[in-house]
Amino acid sequence: MPIENIPEIYINDKKESSDLFVYDFKMTNDVVKSKVNLGMNMFSFLQVGKKQVHFAGTSVAVNKDQSLLLKKGNWLWTELLDTEAIYYCKLFFFSEKKLTDFLSKYTNNIKPYKEDVPYFVIENDDYIASFINSLSSNTFTNHNFSNALLSLKFEEIMLYMLTKYDNKFEFYLHSLISKEMSPFKKVVESNVNSNLKVEEIAFLCNMSLSTFKRHFTNEYNEPPGKWFQDKRLQKAKELLQGGNLKPSDIYLDIGYNNLSNFSTAFKNKFGISPTDI
């Protein structure tokens, strides 16, 4: 079963704005099971048929009385024809940039939804039905004001969802934001293979040594001295196994002041002297 990259396979003009995109999806063949790499978060407004989706360890099934908001990522989904032998839905894709802009404009800076559920089930009502009818891919292409109009439609459905579901939807939207590495971890992990001392890395993190050690142990469940030593000795082993370097060539770069201390630490960890590799 090939992997479908969505929405890329639906976009004819690759220069088209990648922040918002609408696609009318119709199907008249038998049941289709798909592996989908969803590159953007997506509303799936189902109008005819049934849909079942799987993401990691969870799944959900909806019918024409419901819609879905799906998190970007790898999905398995099955689309089932209706008794009328047709499947029809409108797909509304939006980028993370559009989402973060919306959240900063209209919502509070709250913590992400704890359960981190990858989908949100929407119960369709008269307002949503009217919105779906106004959402057509033909409306938002090749017009001077298409992008501006589509941005308004995005804000409209998002604001209505906040009105309809309140904090539950707001928490879910925050859970869609990628969890980037914290500034603290960026500094730590960019210096794994440096020869900087722990107190020097603490300085780069704008922390006292005691605060740094406490914060580090909370993040990594291990004291920084041992963590850095293990990482750097592993790097030393890899360098020596390359065959082009001797222990005397690398001990300073690994953070040791003399060859003797490096050799002792290496043997304690791996059971052999670095000269034996």
Automatic annotation (TrEMBL):
One function term, GO molecular function aspect: sequence-specific DNA binding
Superkingdom of origin organism: Bacteria
UniProt keyword terms in alphabetical order: DNA-binding, Transcription, Transcription regulation
Keyword Transcription regulation among UniProt keywords: yes
InterPro entries: ExsA-like_N, Homeodomain-like_sf, HTH_AraC
One Pfam match: ExsA_N
Gene3D superfamilies, alphabetized: Homeodomain-like
Residue ranges constituting the HTH araC/xylS-type domain according to the UniProt record: 182-277
The name this protein goes by in its record: AraC family transcriptional regulator
Source organism per UniProt: Polaribacter glomeratus
